[in-house]
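ok trying this again, last paste got cut off
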Amino acid sequence: MNWNRILAIIIKSWHNAKRDVFRIFDIFWWPAFELFIWGLFSVFISKTSSEGVNIISVLLGAVILWTFFDRASRDMSLAMIDELWNKNFINLFSTPLTIPEYLVGVAIVATLKLIISIVFMFFLANILYGFQLSSIGFYLIPAAIGLTIFGWSLSLVVQGLIIRFGHTVEVFIWAISVLVQPFSCVFYPLSTLPEWARTIAMALPSTYLFENMRTFMAGQPIKTNEILISFGLNALYLILAMIFFTRSYEKAKQNGNLIRNY
């Protein structure tokens, strides 16, 4: 693996961002929008609740953690689709650049954008609603890592589908987050889902992370076995996603879809 070529991908993304202000605006707009909407909803629920549960902290914590998955599942796919739209994807791989080097470079750029978004969200949540980082505490680290990896796995699947089937699949870049969220138990416990939905939910790494987020924020010890299950599922899905992406790329290269579609 050549880190100079990986650095070239990062520098290229930086120059693209400087030329297009909307790439930078996107980092701040969606976190602010989601935080504003859900923050107001949290305040409303808190005022109408007769219980002593700090619903504001729980819901805002869920919104912030969900951003890790949401951006991870979108940003890597958007980086690839940008190259496809600009008819540059084939040009990238006419160089010595390899698939792993490309993915690592794009992942680094996506991570940097994600960090900026999360820091901005924490700042905004503190200013608008008095949300403290200590509400999530150390649990932020495993939750952030797990949700980011899960987002990357689904992003690789979406990218593989786009490469293989063309532009018609691009809608999944934005739809995947909406499809996964109801089963991830982001804003409600697993017990609220019907039996058939629980089966799907328990196959998602995100479900265990959000269940333990609420447990941790309620002052109870997290369930280590569930965290291990979550990371085990993440490892499995990431490996399968990388295999799927690589095979989709090779298949598209063999049958000429890359040239015909892009």
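PB: full thing came through this time. The chain has eleven helices and no strands.
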